[in-house]
Amino acid sequence: MSVDALAPSAFRWRRFLAVAGPGIVVMLADTDAGSVITAAQSGAQWGYSLLLLQFILIPILYIVQELTVRLGAVTGKGHAELIKQQFGRGWAWLSVATLIVTCLGALLTEFAGLAGVGNLMGVSPPLTLTLVVAALMAMALMHGYLTVERIAIVVGALELVFLVVAVLAHPGMDEVGSGALTIPITDPKYLLLASANIGAVIMPWMVFFQRSSVAEKGLTTADLPSARLDTAIGAVATQLVMAAVLVAVAATLGKEGGDRALDTVEEIVGAITPFLGDFAGKLLFGLGMAGAALVAAIVVTLTAARTLAEVLGAKHKLEDEPREAPWFYGFYAIALVVCALVVGSGMNLVSLAVGVQVMNALLLPIVLGFLYLLARRLPEPYRLKGAYAAISGAIILATVVFGVYSGVAGLWG
Asked: Taking phi first (over 0 means left), then psi (-120 to 50 degrees means alpha), and beta for anything else, what does residue 21 get?
């Protein structure tokens, strides 16, 4: 084969590597501390019964984030800015208010997860949180989206150790298969965790972050094929990590004959260390949780600060100096410090994590509703229309209805 024949393929891969990043980062952040805890709790309480849901959510997650990428590449605007332009300031503020609530809730779970990892390693929560806040502030002041993106990918890649944990737990394939098909759909406790898993995967801040990142990175419609591949790879990777955590805990607790709630990071590690060894269990789970929590802390804090500044019409890019973007950097710093202080006071991580994910599911109508309507208003030929619009609408509607129904039924059941 000639060099000329290879050139187009090489060019496509170079183009992909230049474009890739926003999708992988947001998907790695999707498997955050709260998601890891939710997956672990699912395996602890229901064995493999929620495993099938993890794979069903892959195409749903891709569809949602593909619409996000499309809107960002075509318009070059952030989500809040576009809502304000298309629907008015009131609706923009409603979307921002719900976003900030979910971002702060997520940041609390990230910090609680990092404090738990610190405890495992013999580091006190105050010291752990002080170091994390200082590192995240220093990262933001590096003044460059690409630098932050690379840091997030490297840190988030630590989550992949959960795949090793799942293999080392030696799950029985027959048990996995039969357990995955056992779905107690009428049990309120099962529905609550099902809702939490949906909220752990389809998160409001993901839409805002990826839209802003696509715009800040300067991606255009010519980059859509590579950006979609970036998103698809991320969607598969994040759900494999979720499934791995669930399988690891279900396999180890199943061998103990236990079906119990796990209240802390230490209890989750305690559930798997008898089968992985104390050192390996702490090291692997600690690395995975730290990677998950750190990349998500980066994403949710940037998302909240960006979006608030965006709707206020203020500067909100990482290339801007603090004096040029006081709203952006000010809210970024305040969110980090306040959430660190709250977590430092002590809280039940598992209850918080599951509660935040259920809240995410209950807010899906607002987030996905605006996303769908905006995609329907794009100019030709990028407008969401025809059969794909009908399929996407049906999938989004079904996800919203099941997420809200299972959350309400689980809370009231």
From this structure: left
